[in-house]
Amino acid sequence: MKLVIPILLFLLVGAVACSDETKSETKTIYYPGEKQIKQQIEYKKGKKNGLFIEYFRNGLVKAKQHYLNDTLHDSTILYHDNGKIETIQVYNKGFRE
After folding, report:
1. Residue 25, pLDDT above cutoff 70
2. pLDDT for the residue 11
3. How far is it, in rounded angstroms, from Cα 53 to Cα 19?
C-alpha cells in the first residue's frame, strides 16, 4: 500500500505535466474600445501554431495565415476590404515558394 500511493502520485504529476506541454489556446484581440475582433491567433506551447486571422474594422477578413512554431507555413491569403482576394502566397517553413 505504501508503494501504491507514490506511484499514483507520480502518474498524476506526469499526466498534468504532459497536458501543459500540449496546451493549445486561441487568443482574440479586439480593436481598442470596440467589440469588433481584430485578430484571432492559435497558440500551442506559447508559439503561433495554426490559423491566424486578421479582420478589417468592417468585420470582413483581412488576412488568413498558417503558422508552425512561430513561422509562416502553408498558405497566406490577403483580402481587400470588400472581401475579394488580393493575393495568395505559399510558405514552407518561413520561406515563400
Report:
1. yes
2. 47
3. 26
